[in-house]
Design goal:
The complex is a heterodimer of chains A (256) and B (342). By secondary structure, chain A is an alpha/beta fold. Chain A contains 8 helices and 15 strands. Chain A has helices at residues 15-26, 45-55, 71-77, 92-96, 112-125, 136-141, 193-199, 244-255, and strands at 6-11, 36-42, 59-62, 83-88, 104-107, 151-156, 159-164, 168-174, 177-182, 185-190, 205-209, 212-215, 219-226, 229-234, 239-242. In chain A, helix 2 runs parallel beside helix 3 (71-77). Chain A is elongated, with a radius of gyration of 21 Å. Chain B is an alpha+beta fold. Helices cover 63% and strands 13% of the residues of chain B. In chain B, strands 2-4-5-7-6 form a 5-stranded mixed sheet, with helices on one face. In chain B, a hairpin with a 3-residue loop joins strand 6 and strand 7 (330-337). The radius of gyration of chain B is 34 Å and the shape is elongated. In chain B, 32% of the residues are buried. Classes of the chains: A alpha/beta (256), B alpha+beta (342).
Chain lengths: 256, 342
């Protein structure tokens, strides 16, 4: 492949929507040649994650509403070096929230001039690593108020695994990662525990400890550990330490 | 608080009304009790001031005893009792005024007695009149509020109708087609325009024949079929007997839009939407069924079924029903409305 040619992946479930990107990428005049090559076209979120793993593209054109995984979920799962350009009919306001993570966003329908501006931005940002976790207040702006994450997506090798919120037992902070426990298995995801906590329903998940976020339904009992430390025992037998603040939060949630 | 205090200009106007009212009362008792103008004024001035404020109190009484809910006998009894209490109270004020002015105006105390029956009757009447006027105001307010609610529901329905997300996606399809297939691009423009025009026209009406709602729905689906291609498949089974049955305008099309958005759009291979209409004993029964992917990400937009339910209830009370059933990978909404033939 020629140097300077960008590898692009297109992810959109609508054939016509993919078509217009293909047209802009392929049939632009030589003077404006973006020097880009489409390495894969995907029709759902799973494929998009897979293609990004296989092809290591420079840029991903990503629709928001797609089968399997939506664009936001795809964004969480792919290599942060991939420059993401959202291509969506979502309104501008909601998309502005993703400025931090996406290089640009194209609002459907968009013209070739606008497309070129996005490509210029991509060129300037090639190889740059985007922040692993979005500031949660920004991410929440794209969710309707009062709506919480119903599921958590994680990568399982090349595959994607979806954990419904109800099946998540607890999450443990481990440096830049959270270790998620669900149905007897463990998963690692690059995310801060605080951002996970903010996305999940606070009526169902409680921060028992600085490093632990626990599904309230999984708690069977509270045991005294030492004179003034406590442990939460979960359905699967795991024991989670409670901090003083965590104890108060749990009380406020189930006692109040 | 009484709404009259919300605007001081209105309140001043209200007080001004009491000036001629007080004058009339004064004239009346001066004639009946053969009082001089000064004597009548000495009694009536405090009475009028007290009465002006007491006559605002029916606002609370009227709200506690709404016209529609209470029985007429009870209503009348309560207000008559209140009027009597008010009259006695006001008379006490008048007595007090008469006795305190009897130093300057000797004999006022005795002569005032002749005017007592007339004054009592007048005060009670004025109080009852004020009660009646409060009822009128409260009713007017209530009807204005329900009108506003209806208007709001209509606007909401309209807003949900022309969903910007749908519009932008359709425009994007057109934009894509202009280069590859100009004829289809034009055709889609026309379909979209037809849909928009029709939904604006129908949105102005409260209820329309089922046939017209279905025409609109088909226009909508026509646009979506360009977008989704073979992923969107339809199966229609409509009894012609349903055609002229009346349905609230723009109620069914958003349901179909939901089926596309939450069902078809999130399925890789798409699926078939089933539309069914039957004349049943209770009226018109419309069913829409769509497949969906239980593992699909939550779709963030869409008109809430709560909104549809609200509109049905506003229009039909308990006579209409909206049932939602969900299987492992299918979703069905059944709507039953009374068959009113328009």
């Amino acid at each position: 492949m020629k140097a300077g040619v960008l590898k692009a992946v297109i992810a959109d479930d609508e054939e016509l929507a993919r078509g217009i990107l293909r047209e802009y990428i392929e049939h632009e005049g030589p003077a404006n040649q973006p020097g880009m090559e489409i390495v894969a076209e995907c029709t759902n979120g799973f494929e998009a994650v897979k293609a990004c793993g296989e092809w290591k593209p420079d840029v991903l054109f990503l629709d928001i509403q797609m089968p399997k995984l939506d664009g936001f979920e795809v964004l969480e799962l792919i290599d942060p070096k991939v420059a993401v350009v959202f291509v969506t009919a979502f309104d501008q306001y909601a998309m502005r929230a993703f400025d931090a993570a996406a290089v640009d966003y194209l609002l459907k329908p968009f013209g070739v001039e606008r497309f070129r501006t996005a490509i210029e931005k991509v060129r300037r940002r090639v190889g740059e690593v985007r922040p692993a976790s979005l500031p949660e207040e920004l991410k929440n702006a794209a969710r309707p108020t009062g709506a919480y994450l119903e599921r958590v997506v994680v990568k399982d090798g090349a595959k994607v695994h979806v954990i419904p919120a109800g099946k998540l037992d607890y999450a443990e902070a481990q440096d830049d990662y959270v270790a998620l426990r669900s149905e007897g298995r463990g998963w690692l995801k690059q995310q801060t525990i605080a951002s996970l906590e903010a996305a999940l329903d606070p009526k169902r998940f409680v921060r028992l400890h600085r490093s632990y976020l626990v599904n309230v339904e999984r708690i069977t009992r509270i045991e005294q550990n030492t004179k003034d430390t406590w442990l939460a025992v979960l359905v699967d037998g795991s024991k989670i330490p409670l901090s003083r603040g965590g104890y108060a939060r749990l009380n406020a949630l189930i006692g109040g | 608080m009484h709404p009259i205090f919300q605007n001081w200009k209105v309140f001043l106007l209200y007080l001004a009304v009491w000036v001629p009212l007080g004058a009339i009362l004064g004239l009346l008792i001066s004639v009946v009790g053969t009082l001089s103008a000064a004597e009548a004024a000495a009694i009536i001035a405090p009475v009028t001031v007290v009465l002006a404020f007491v006559c605002l109190s029916p606002w609370y009484a009227c709200r506690a005893l709404p016209l529609r809910s209470a029985r007429a006998g009870r209503l009348l009894g309560q207000h008559l009792l209140a009027a009597m209490v008010v009259a006695v109270g006001v008379l006490l004020v008048a007595r007090l005024a008469a006795s305190s002015f009897s130093d300057i105006l000797p004999g006022l105390d005795q002569r005032f007695r002749a005017a007592v029956p007339v004054l009592t009757a007048m005060v009670a009447m004025i109080y009852l009149l004020s009660t009646a006027m409060h009822y009128v105001v409260i009713e007017a307010q209530a009807s204005r509020r329900s009108e506003l609610l209806a208007r709001e529901a209509q606007l909401r329905a309209l807003k949900a109708q022309v969903n910007p997300h749908f519009l932008f996606n359709s425009l994007n399809s057109i934009s894509a087609l202009t280069a590859s297939d100009a004829v289809r691009a034009r055709e889609m423009c026309i379909r979209l325009a037809d849909f928009l025009r029709t939904s604006l026209r129908l949105g102005e009406r409260a209820a329309i024949p089922f046939r017209e709602e279905m025409e609109l729905t088909r226009m909508y689906l026509g646009v979506e079929q360009v977008r989704f291609g073979r992923r969107l498949r339809l199966h229609e089974d409509m009894e012609t007997a349903c055609d002229e049955c009346e349905v609230p305008a723009l109620l069914i099309q958003p349901l179909v839009e939901n089926a596309v958005k939450h069902g078809i759009a999130l399925l890789d291979e798409g699926g078939e939407i089933l539309l069914l209409a039957r004349r049943v004993r209770e009226g018109l029964r419309f069913t829409i069924e769509n497949p969906f992917d239980p593992a699909a990400p939550a779709n963030r937009s869409g008109i809430g079924l709560a909104n549809v339910r609200q509109r049905l209830e506003a229009r039909y009370g308990t006579a209409a029903r909206l049932e939602v059933e969900a299987g492992e990978n299918w979703y069905r909404v059944t709507l039953t409305v009374p068959a009113l033939v328009s």
